[in-house]
């Protein structure tokens, strides 16, 4: 059949421009049949040059003709979905239960994982009793880590969806986010350290500990947390994609839980060691 003859060439001999020219003379059904016969890389290269509306119509025909797996592979390659486990169809078209099934497992598991944060705080109860000022800045640690990590994760998820980066770029992503985090952490440490010195003068301090020492310890803890959470936020979407999970669903709750736990560990370990509590 003429529709299927053109693609019977090797990858090196395949001409995308010729394939596009050939497709212009086909009906929508014939275009879908033609795409099925191509390899995945050939199909992606051809459809990447087609109008979005036409691509969506072809993919809908593939799904309706029992080629849903191929349609999802092409959609993922074109950045129309984030992973092969992402529900098919538009957001509003999917049922409530499909969204629940996609999200509930992670939410319940990570909620139980959050108990670890409470155990860490209980472990350092004596330090909090001797220096109540530490409790004031616990939310700052969690917020700083969560905000910077979420920013990094959002940018990487968008870059993955648009094809700006791929799995092979993970080391470049880590290195870039690490450098960004270093600059952000320095600025944030200075701001929070100044806040401690300027507005905590009336706080009770243990013998041998000055307000400047407390400010330095808290600032250093925040810096370490920001560097860790930003770098983690940059690499988590890549890990999710590697395991064929949806970064948009997975990254935010996992990042929030991990940042809460590591934030408390970094905070209390840093301040207790530096202040001798």
Notes on the structure:
This is Mg2+ transporter mgtE. Keywords: Magnesium, Membrane, Transmembrane, Transmembrane helix, Transport. The chain crosses the membrane at residues 104-124, 136-157, 178-201, 213-236, 248-269. One of its GO terms (molecular function) is monoatomic cation transmembrane transporter activity. There is one protein chain. The protein is mainly α and 277 residues long. It folds into two domains: 2-77; 96-275, Tetracycline Repressor, domain 2 (Orthogonal Bundle). 74% of the residues lie in helices and 0% in strands. The chain contains 14 helices and no strands. The longest helix is centred in the C-terminal third of the chain and has 32 residues, at 211-242. The model has no long low-confidence stretch (mean pLDDT 82).
Shape field: elongated
Query: In which range does the helix fraction lie?
Result: over 70%
Terminal CA distance reads 80 Å
Rg is: 26 Å
- Residue stretches low in confidence (pLDDT < 50, at least 5 long) are none
Full CATH superfamily name of the largest domain: SLC41 divalent cation transporters, integral membrane domain
Subcellular location: Membrane
Keywords: Magnesium, Membrane, Transmembrane, Transmembrane helix, Transport
Pfam family, one: MgtE
Membrane topology: Multi-pass membrane protein
């Amino acid at each position: 059949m003429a529709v299927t003859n053109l693609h019977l060439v090797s990858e090196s001999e395949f001409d995308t421009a010729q394939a596009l020219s050939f497709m212009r003379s086909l009906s929508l059904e014939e275009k879908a049949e033609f795409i099925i016969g191509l390899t995945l890389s050939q199909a992606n290269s051809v459809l990447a040059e087609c109008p979005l509306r036409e691509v969506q119509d072809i993919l809908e025909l593939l799904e309706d003709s029992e080629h849903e797996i191929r349609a999802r592979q092409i959609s993922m390659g074109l950045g129309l979905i984030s992973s092969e486990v992402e529900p098919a169809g538009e957001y509003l078209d999917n049922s409530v239960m499909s969204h629940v099934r996609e999200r509930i497992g992670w939410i319940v598991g990570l909620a139980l994982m959050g108990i670890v944060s409470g155990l860490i705080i209980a472990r350092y109860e004596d330090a909090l009793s001797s220096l109540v000022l530490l409790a004031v800045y616990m939310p700052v640690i969690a917020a700083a880590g969560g905000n910077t990590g979420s920013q990094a994760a959002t940018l990487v998820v968008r870059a993955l969806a648009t094809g700006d980066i791929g799995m092979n770029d993970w080391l470049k992503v880590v290195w870039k986010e690490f450098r960004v985090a270093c600059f952000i952490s320095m600025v944030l440490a200075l701001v929070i350290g100044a806040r401690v010195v300027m507005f905590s003068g009336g706080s009770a301090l243990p013998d041998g500990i000055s307000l400047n020492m407390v400010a330095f310890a808290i600032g250093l803890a925040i810096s370490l947390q920001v560097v860790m959470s930003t770098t983690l936020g940059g690499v988590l979407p890549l890990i999710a994609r590697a395991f064929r999970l949806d970064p948009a669903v997975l990254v935010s709750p996992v990042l929030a839980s991990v940042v809460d736990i590591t934030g408390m560990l970094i905070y209390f370990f840093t301040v207790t060691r530096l202040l001798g509590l």
